Amino acid sequence: MSVSNWIVLIIELLGVGLAVTISMKQYISFKKTPFYALFTAWLGWYLCFNIVFLVPIDILASRHNDCIDKINNSTACKNATVVLPECNTSQMCPEPISYLPDSVMVVQWSVLYWGTFILSWVIFPVLQTYSGTGDFRFRERIMRSIKENIILYSFMGIFGLVIGIVILIFFRDKPLTALVEALFTLINVYGLVLVVITMGFGLVDVPRNLLRKSNHYRTLRHYRIQAVVLKSELDEAQRLLEEHLRLIKATSDKAGEFDPFRRYLDIIISKCPLEFDTIDTDDIQVPDLTYSKVVEMHANLMDYTHMAERSDAMYTRLLGKAFAAEDIIATLESPKENREKRIKWSFKNGSTSPSKAKWEYYWHLYIYPNFYKVVGAFCAIMSLLVVWAEVSLSFGSRVKSVSPFALVIYSTSASLSGFGLQIFCFIPLLYMAICAYTTLFKIRIFNYYRLVPQQQTNSLSIMFSSNYLGRLAAPLSFNFIQICGMNDSSFSAAMGDTDAFALKNFNLYFPIIVGVVCIISLFSIHTRVASMCCIKSLRVVTDTSEAAAEKGVKILKQVRDAQVEGVPPPKTRMGVLKDFITGKGSKKKSTATDGATDTRPQPQRPVYKAPQQKSTVMMGLSRDYTSKNGTTFKSVKTNEANNAILTSDTRSSDARLESKGLNYWDKLKFKYDSDDDDDIEMGKF
Question: Is the domain of 500 the same as that of 624?
Answer without folding.
Answer: no
